[in-house]
TrEMBL record:
PANTHER family: BETA-GLUCOSIDE KINASE, ROK (REPRESSOR, ORF, KINASE) FAMILY. Coiled coil: none annotated. This is ROK family protein. It comes from Iodobacter arcticus. InterPro entries: ATPase_NBD, ROK. Pfam families: ROK.
Length: 294
């Protein structure tokens, strides 16, 4: 069994640790990103975090998952990383390879989550699937023929920006969109997903209407993706997945209502199961795919 050093770099936290080539997380830590310090400072922190783990575990390589659009050959941050000032333009791969002499890969964080779901999660054994992350926005990863589809400029899967009903999809159908809608409808403030669904479950008629409209908007976008990609499976992740079967049953029904009869049984919807270390796991899966591993 071989080990890899894995990083999952987010706008708020850095998750990092040692992962085996069989998908076992052997060691994991979390640090604050300290995003306000900027990209160069973040890079210095990552190198400092890597050093003792490389000395202790002797990994065969370094696998990076990161926020932003990531060009895969040099791991250059192309953009969409506003949370960390001066991060775009940094080339992650040569920085780590020059520092440690270990083969390094870098990939977008949601793409890594998609790879993790195909490796140890809900899409194991599936060749054509989408992973949709429903959070503050809506992003995703695309796997076709068992391979990650990045697009021309590593920007594939940014379907949160699709226009539905003349509005940006994620502005309406993300969790933050649901909260905005609930606050506008009820005149309340300080709502969050837990409060909204607690009221829904308690039979609040107004919240039932808000959530039904939100599910319809979410389902419209998912149906469009089914028509566009014809995936065998769509894996849904984000905090909403914590509702389990309640959410899965509701979104399945809502999507069915959007699809023509011939398409209703083509694509299975499932909840993400790769867990809290999905970014690290997907980064390692990407490394193994790149370097001919398991």
């Amino acid at each position: 069994m071989s080990h890899l050093l894995a990083f999952d770099i987010g706008g708020t936290q850095i998750k990092y640790g040692i992962v085996s080539d069989t998908g076992e997380v052997l060691y994991a830590e979390v640090q604050n990103t300290c995003a306000a310090d900027g990209g160069p400072a973040l890079l210095s922190r990552l190198l400092a975090l890597a050093q003792p783990l490389i000395a202790q575990y002797q990994p065969i390589g370094i696998a990076i998952s990161s926020l932003g659009l990531i060009e895969p050959l040099r791991g250059t941050v192309l953009g969409a990383a506003e949370a960390v000032p001066d991060y775009p333009g940094i080339a992650l791969i040569p920085t780590f390879e020059n520092a440690f002499g270990l083969p390094t890969t870098a990939e977008n964080d949601v793409n890594c989550v998609a790879l993790a779901e195909g490796w140890t999660g809900a899409a194991q054994g599936v060749q054509d699937y989408l992973a949709i992350a429903i959070g503050t926005g809506i992003g995703g990863g695309i796997v076709l023929g068992g391979r990650l589809h990045r697009g021309h400029r590593a920007a594939a899967g940014e379907w949160g920006y699709m226009k539905i009903g003349g509005q940006i999809w994620e502005s309406q159908a993300s969790m933050s969109g649901l909260v905005r809608s609930a606050e506008a409808t009820t005149g309340g403030a300080g709502l969050n997903g837990k409060v909204i669904f607690a009221r829904l479950d308690a039979g609040d008629a107004l919240m039932q209407k808000v959530v039904a409209e939100w599910l319809d908007l979410l389902a419209t976008g998912i149906a469009n993706l089914i028509y566009a990609f014809n995936p065998e499976k769509i894996v849904l992740g984000g905090g909403i997945a914590g509702r389990g079967e309640l959410f899965l049953s509701a979104i399945r029904n809502a999507v069915d209502q959007q699809l023509l009869p011939d398409f209703k049984t083509m694509t299975k919807l499932a909840l993400a199961t790769a867990g809290n270390h999905a970014g690290m796991l997907g980064a390692v899966r990407n490394w193994l795919n790149t370097h001919g591993g398991a």
